[in-house]
Design goal:
Elements (H helix, E strand, L loop, with lengths): L6 H13 L9 H4 L2 E7 L4 E6 L7 H25 L4 E4 L1
Parallel strand pairs: 2-3
Antiparallel strand pairs: 1-2
Helix pairs in contact: 1-3
Length: about 90
């Protein structure tokens, strides 16, 4: 059963989205629309992240884009783990 997030949880998530920057634009992840939504499952003690991944059709750009994307998502996950050490953090 999913539970609505309390205001403190929302504040912490917003803080993470504000401090993790995308390296090419140096803009916060929260402003770029990379993360679409979060879901919290209290029973499983899990926070699920729904991300909108970058897209590129060119092979050379695809590899670079995926490396940047992976780095950004790892930093988001790391920062969320600092804020919520008791939760499992998963990308969906």
């Amino acid at each position: 059963m999913e539970k609505t997030m309390d205001p403190e949880m929302i504040r912490k998530i917003d803080s993470v989205l504000g401090r993790v920057k995308e390296p090419e634009s140096n803009l916060p992840v929260g402003e770029l629309g990379i993360i679409q939504k979060f879901r919290y499952n209290e029973h499983k003690r899990a926070l699920y992240i729904f991300a909108n991944t970058y897209g590129s059709k060119k092979a050379c750009c695809f590899l670079i884009t995926k490396l940047i994307e992976s780095d950004v998502m790892n930093r988001v996950k790391s920062e969320l783990k600092k804020e919520f050490p008791e939760l499992t953090i998963r990308f969906v």
